[in-house]
Amino acid sequence: MQTSTIQGTKMHEDRILNFSAGPAILPESVLEQLREDIWNLNGSGVGVLEHSHRGKEIDTIFEEAVANCKTLAGIEDSHEVLFLQGGASGQFAMIPMNFLHQGRTADYLVTGTWAKKAIQEAQRIGDAHCAHDGSATLFDHVPTVDEIDLSLDPAYLHYCSNNTIYGTRFDAMPLASCTKIVDMSSEMFSRPWDYTGHGLVYAGAQKNLGPAGVVLALVSKELMETARDDMPTILSYETHAKGGSRYHTPPVFPIHAMGLVFKWILAEGGLEEMERRNNAKAGLIYDVLDDCGGFYIPHSRPECRSVMNISFKTQTPELDKKFIEDAAAHGMSALKGHRSIGGMRASIYNAFPAEGCKVLADFMKEFARTNG
Fold first, then answer.
1. pTM for the model
2. Catalytic annotation on 183?
3. Is 18 a domain residue?
């Protein structure tokens, strides 16, 4: 089978370009290793799906994944690395259940659909204050300092660093003296970030880290000491920290896949190299959006553009539909935008090849030329 190597990723000729926002593309070298490990893990004669979650082979998987995650995040021993279930949506409830004490207020920056769901869940549990609501402009930007209205003494400030649907992101974490909690589901480990500056960082794996079925949470030990003690045992971060993410039978396969992705990122040059590649890839597409005389309409304001998720439209819904159909005929899938804003969305996570971005950019130029 012929392959081409593009900046550390391979494009097999029997695979099309997958622009899905999630579950999303994985490095092909990781997929190849998983295929072997399903059959026979490390020469043990037993596949990864069949091993006891407390056996020595799985011990090694967890130990290596935790160590490599800490290396990427630069957190050493300040934070616990936890592999949990329920995805980011489960964290929306688990966070306030652990850290929103009676009589305290938690602040939320509502910059998109998932941030909105997060505050709604917190409001079911305690006092949650909306410190910014971007719905009036259909979440086309993240707030400036002047647009954030913090409460007097928030228990924590929750925000989403990259908005998958609307294609916006924070260049840096918001300025606030309180504990910061961030949902990084769609950009975790795509660029250097101040992980030590957060009390909790979490990400559903199925966008940039691995397959669906597990969420990665980096929880500071200092924050964990302040947790409430009145939530169900299985919803306590301390429970999972003490159990090494194996308080109950964990989803071993997606955790193993995530561990292999960590190894891949390190082998490819780490977060600085991921950022360099991702900026170059996104630049190919944004250049077309900006240079086609208004044929395309990007959703995000220029200063807030996401590098992972690029949302845009043409002049009409009918033309959007034609764009998606024609792109599919050229081997590009999952370009349909989210139902809340329509149009198109190209998700180009770490593992997405640069060659694929060039293919899309060239297609966009030709589509604008022939349909403008």
1. 0.94
2. yes
3. no
